[in-house]
Amino acid sequence: MSSAANEFTKGIVRENPVFALLLGLCPTLAVTTSLKNGVGMGLAGGAVLICSNIVISLLRKVIPPKIRIPIFIVVIASFVTIIDLLMEAQVPDLHKSLGLFIPLIVVNCIILGRAEAYAYKEGILNSALDGMGMTVGFTWALALIGGIREILGTGNLWGMPWNVALGSIPVLGNILGPIATTFSDILGAIGIQPAILMILPPGAFILMGVLMGWFQHRKLKMEAGL
Amino acid sequence: MPEMLKLTLILLVVCLCSAGALSQTYNSTKEKIAKNRKATESIARLAVLPGATSVSIFNADKSVESKTSDSAIKAFAGTDDSKKQIGYAFKVSEKGFSGDIDVMVGCAKNKKGLLAVTGTRVLRHSETPGLGAEMNTVAYSDTQKFGDKAVPKFQKQFIGKTVEQLYLKKLDPKKGTIDSMTAATISSKAFTKAVREGIETFKEVSK
């Protein structure tokens, strides 16, 4: 594997920001009550992360090490605010759905963490690739947590009943849809209700714990196998 | 201490550049954002008054200081095609969990002659996605039935309610009729307060 490809792929599983680096857990726990919110947060956070990695990497030679943290914060916060204003002026519809995540992103530790641990030391291309990999990793992790919490907590997925949601996937939906519908009918018949606990904060902690445990288990197994 | 001075200067320059870039962006986007917000407001005015096809300024010369916001309440009267008056719409705002929640409220006299809510619409808010932001989430069965006209689940509770009923069940068990959103009491309270106090202020204005 070439090193550039490695910079990109490492964030997806091996150094996944949520499950392996444990970065950005505040928004992860607060926002992932549904699949839509998980994806929204992942993409909005990712866009900022890629840009801030590039900016910090560009400025890395002029930022003195002793005051790097305040400079990171000033640069990232102003630059996110500028994106926020531009979005509200030019694409108000997009701003309505993604703008909500902006205040959660500005001082997110994932942004600062990558600036400090990576972009401050590496070139622009590598920093951008690192940002993209982290974005993919962050988004799938949030989507997974959001999706599971939404199904278990409300019985929905992407804002509609989960069997309808699965049924509307192209091609695969023709098989998955009817299976899911039968399954949810059985659940309904034996009186199983969605557990609202799952979309409340404790649900996020429980699910995070289970998923992280599984993730670590896989990792240990893989390391032992090598 | 030349190094301390140097670091201070660098930080100062960075902050100055950021501030400059921010004010430049703010100034160049200010008008466009104001225009966008005005457009949303005029759409919302009709949306909160079902049946209304046009609105006109109602209280141009006698505005009263609103309790809920710094600016005075500015109400619009909505009429239908046959010039029959449908009700009134006005904007209120209240501090939510993070930042202001701006709500367009529509109200009309009910059979008993009391002002009751005809509709609400959130113009702007910055509540947490998944918690307070759920105030704008429409139930799936409603999207199927009403399409674009569907009212979010939380706001649906307000329709037809009068000032005395606009309290949260959780906080005012005796008079409350509004169920708060799961794990978002502050946002629910702010929204309810905005609507309630808006109507109260409007009563004073329209006297």
Characterization of the model:
The complex is a heterodimer of chains A (226) and B (207). Chain A is built from 11 helices and 2 strands. Chain A has helices at 3-9, 25-31, 35-59, 68-90, 92-98, 102-105, 109-119, 124-154, 162-167, 173-189, 201-225, and strands spanning 156-157, 160-161. In chain A, helix 3 packs parallel to helix 7, helix 4 crosses helix 5 (92-98) and helix 4 (68-90) packs across helix 7. The radius of gyration of chain A is 20 Å and the shape is globular. Chain B has helices spanning 2-47, 140-146, 153-156, 185-206, and strands spanning 54-57, 75-79, 85-95, 100-109, 115-124. Chain B is globular, with a radius of gyration of 21 Å. Chain B starts with a helix and ends with a helix. Chains A and B meet through helix 3, helix 4 and strand 2 of A and helix 1 of B.
By oligomeric state, this entry counts as heterodimer
Number of strands of chain A: 2
Please state how the strands of the largest beta sheet of chain B are arranged side by side: 1-2-3-4-5
N-to-C SSE series of chain A?
Answer: HHHHHHHHEEHHH
- Largest sheet report of chain B: 5 strands, antiparallel
Helix-strand blueprint:
The complex is a heterodimer of chains A (226) and B (207).
Chain A: H1 3-9, H2 25-31, H3 35-59, H4 68-90, H5 92-98, H6 102-105, H7 109-119, H8 124-154, E1 156-157, E2 160-161, H9 162-167, H10 173-189, H11 201-225
Antiparallel strand pairs in A: 1-2
Helix pairs in contact in A: 1-8, 3-4, 3-7, 3-8, 4-5, 4-7
Chain B: H1 2-47, E1 54-57, E2 75-79, E3 85-95, E4 100-109, E5 115-124, H2 140-146, H3 153-156, H4 185-206
Antiparallel strand pairs in B: 1-2, 2-3, 3-4, 4-5
Provide a brief overview of the structure.
Chain A is an all-alpha fold.
Provide key terms for this protein:
A: 226 residues; mainly alpha; 72% helix; globular; B: 207 residues; alpha+beta; five-stranded antiparallel beta sheet
